[in-house]
Amino acid sequence: MPASGTRIPVVLLHDAAVDEFISSMLLSVMPGIDLLGIIIINADCIAEPAMQASSRLLQFMGRTEIPVALSRARGWNAFPWAYRKDCVCFNELSILKGYNPQVPTPPPDGEALLAKLLREAILTNRPLTLLMTGPVTPLVDTLSKEPSLAKGVGQIVWMGGAIDVSGNLDPQTINSVVANTHAEWNAFWDPYSVETIFRLFGGINMFPLDISDSAPVTSEFRNALKQQGEKYRYSQLAYEAYSLVASEPFYRLWDVTATCWLTRPDLYTPATTMPLTIEQWGFEQGWIHKPLTLGAEKPQNVFFSFADLQGFYKYVLELLATNGGR
């Protein structure tokens, strides 16, 4: 939790999957969080409907003052189209139909927004928390142009990687030539940027599949949202959103897992600090692991498990028990 009277300045960088839109809602109601901007990455989504959905969601929340921009980052390994359709479905949710997207063509530049916010953080001595629930490429691209902006980064929270569990590259969905068993998609999309981030920053708070695998979208959780939705519009939206992926047994609260740590670290087992490296070439591309030999790798903070899993679900439900001030 933030200290009394302070608010954590947060920038959310995500790639517009269902769970990430829910993270946006959670950040808007979390105590002590100041959500300064949202940057969407054209990775596990389709850019135009992703931007439209984000615009509709901010109107739904009554938070249109929060700037939203589209990253110009490009990945190495593209997400399958079958995965990227979730943002289209979210954009068409009945609960959002009454809101007209307000997205200029072309959309605002994500790296320009990130650079602006980092400059302001340095000037005000208020370093940013970067909550990254997609690839890390936008940060790398921004710092490659203006390295001094790294001084504006207070902490990095990243949902990415798989350390002691299998990755999530599905050989039924992508070609077996690249579908190794170790890589996680947010790292696999651009392993070169992950290597750069590991080289530039130590103490990254990482939430890999090791922890998020234990947080499925259960029927009990969805039923609780449905019941709350009779009274609270945030819960109703979350229920409709997670119903889109109810037929996908592999779906997890990947991004919500990383998000809730910001204000309820007590729900998590303390992080394990370890040096990490990532495979950049070959069949194991995107595999994050401990280096075979110790070198100059910086130690990162890896969260492997919940201390109170049921408390985590309860906290999410508590945050969504709101009508957003309406």
From TrEMBL:
The keyword Transcription does not apply. One of its GO terms (cellular component) is cytosol. It holds the Pfam family IU_nuc_hydro. It comes from the Bacteria. GO terms for molecular function: purine nucleosidase activity. GO terms for biological process: purine nucleoside catabolic process. InterPro entries: Inosine/uridine_hydrolase_dom (IPR001910), IUNH (IPR023186), Ribo_hydro-like (IPR036452). Residues 14-280 form the Inosine/uridine-preferring nucleoside hydrolase domain. Keywords: Glycosidase, Hydrolase. This is Purine nucleosidase. It comes from Edaphobacter modestus.
